[in-house]
Design a protein that fits this description.
heterodimer, A: 719 residues, alpha+beta, Aldehyde Oxidoreductase, domain 4, seven-stranded mixed β-sheet, six-stranded mixed β-sheet, 19 helices, 29% helix, 25% strand, B: 154 residues, Ubiquitin-like (UB roll), DNA polymerase, domain 1, 2 domains, five-stranded mixed β-sheet, 5 helices, 5 strands
Amino acid sequence: MKTTTVTRREFIRLTGLGSAALALGYYLPAAGRPAHILKVEAAENLGIELNAFIFIESSGKITIMNHRSEMGQGAFQVVPQMIAEELEVSLDEINIIFAPGSQTKYGSQVTGGSSTVRGAWRHLMRMGATAREMLIEAAARKWKVNADECYAENATVIHRATGRKATYGELATDAAKLEPPKNVKLKNRSEYKIVGKPLPRQDTPLKVNGTAVFGLDKKLPGMLYAAVERNPRFLGKVKSYDDSAARTVPGVKHVFKVQMDVFSHKREGVAVVADTLWAALEGKKALRIEWDDNGFEHYGTDQLFSLMHNSLGQPGLTQKAAGNFDAYFSKASRKLEAVYETPYQAHACLEPLNCIAHFKGNSCEIWGPIQAPDWIQSDIAMKFGLKPENVTVNMTFLGGGFGRKAFTDYTYEAVAISKEINAPVQVVWTREDDLTQGPFRPGAVYECKAGLTQQGRISAFQVKMAAQNLNHQWPGADTESYNDSTTEGLPEPYLNTIPHYRFADIPLASPIPVMWWRSVYSSTNAFAFESFIDELARAAGKDPLEFRKQHLPDERHRLLIDRLMEVSNWKQRGQNSGYGAAVTECFQSIVGEVVKVSRKADGKIKIDKVWAVMDCGWYVNPDIIRAQVEGSIVMALGAALKHATLFNEGKAVQRNYDTYKMPRINEIPDIEVHIMENDERPGGVGEPGLPPLAPALTNALYDLTGKRIRKLPFNLEEF
Amino acid sequence: MAVFQLNVNNRSYAVDVDPDTPLLWVLRDELNLTGTKYGCGVAQCGACTVHLNGNPVRSCTLPVAAAKGNITTIEGLSENGDHPVQKAWIELDVAQCGYCQAGQIMTAAALLARKPQPTDADIDTAMAGNICRCGTYKRIRKAIHLAATKGGAR
């Protein structure tokens, strides 16, 4: 398999779309309606834009276009893996290329919410099957036999009785003359040769020999480099700047004021453009800027969290409620209350933000590590007065994304700089820019209250979340609207077994920009929910996992908890170790984790092991699932133990990895991942492994020491 | 600006740059060897690791004027991407986003050259300077042990 990144025009040229090759795509008439599968030429005649994914040339070359970003989560592998399964080709026989960004052409390409498989699997597999059936039909007509006497295998159609064969390349021209069948039969899971198998990732060889092209690696002829000193206080203006020293740096060509859109605000900064990136960075260091930071609060972390804690007395905006919480809480035989706190955090992708833009007057071309190419296409078109079809967003590999690279600020800024200098330019954020500018995961405070019956069942349950609401930042947003994500992370069946509950949020207004961070609200909600469930189990005198089983009686949760108990040897856990568990739901997958901790001879606590059980339903590649859960656990360990973004005088304090600390190889416990086998609809994979780790860890520490952690991050060394 | 002679991956180059320019930016932007990555600029993450006379160094803080000797980057670690460390990385599908992996591989290759059969403690010591934000550490450890069984010390 070869991999490459091309523009749309090059793509059409390379794949010979103008020739007789079979080219299929799918078209989504409206949300919720089934996809139509059409030939590219038919769609062009009808004026319909297709999601174009399969191209078969008469030479036999097969190309599959991947419309999703690859940021480590494996979309590069699993999208072709699904199509190839039904197409009856092996992954070695195909080329995979990234699709350029186009909302009209590819549907939503925002790679977030762990949505690649769960969102598109049916369309992708139907399209593969449609192409296969057309190729079989073409062969049957050629041989004057019935199509059902033939089958496809390894990009070849075979006549069962005679063994006669024709390759897809030989059949592509004839197949292209046929109408795509309306109904195709998809394979049974037992017939899969590719899907469900731990096939090696096609991008690994590129990533171990240095040839994978990330955004930062892309270069254009005549490209200049830019670095920007942006206001560290998010809302301020450039009052004045002195660029005399910056302009003496050899290679510096331009210095000017630049703006970028951050939700409802314009972030101001000063750009330094140079022949080399090093010159731009040196020029940036030499700038002397006076900021106008009047007219808004310069918060510190303590003030922000005081505001959130002090707001907990308010009723908040109810998201979900049933029964009468207040009445049944007051009459409960046992009452519990606890407040939990999670910090602001930067995403800290190892590849800092960067973007190449070439603004050409009536059109614009962009290259970069981008999670939302279609969104960026429409955003740039709207803000720079261009037609969307004249904005090309080219994809590269992403050195991490985690939600940060789904935002449009850095691409807007790059286009603005290119427009100013009338040349292609790569804007590079330093690590310091990346960690201090946001958007951040919002900090949050949770007030949890619950009542237990005499039998130890939860009778009443209330959670109030005080935090900035991601949706409230947009221009014209309704800031009185409740946060629909207040229950994210909580396994849904709790709401069937707890008779009286209420979930509400209390939005915090703040100038700090906030954004999706891997697993989004689940990453913080789950710490409150699953810590509190553990506290309730202890108060009820119940085994923590048995207590969860009682309140999650549906089969999926019961089987998952049983499996978690089995793999962690839960019932035989020893006295000298602490065990903690958590079960969460995120993007339609359920994950349970058990953490084991113990105190070593030197008096320090060590995390010995993490067991994870993932139920993501129907799945594509088990090794990628295991890798994603392993990685999610490590990222969650960092978020629980190592780093937080603090603010002082309205500025982020942690500027680089020396203070925004990452988990290192010597701090990682043994991790064991198990996957549930069932035929449930596919759920997310890239994020759901993260939420249960922090509560499972703090529950384990409570089990070992009797000390309850209610605030993240905490220092294991001081335990 | 000044002209420097560099020996990179057994080829010599002459570059005309500011003497303070970190080797990283010379490799990436002058020699177009973009396999070596920028992650932090302050020798905290290891993404920029290259070999200088066989030793792993952080090219983001090494001025080009001090880069005297044989420099090896990920592009020059093996002829065809088939160094035992690279092969072990492929066999165990270590990489996720892949951005840090050139630095991880260069550090691991230097470890194995010095210590052909490293213990877990040796791996901890050698590799703790390399951040992987995707959290592939478990597989990195396993791949180093695997490479050790397959002549990783070459």
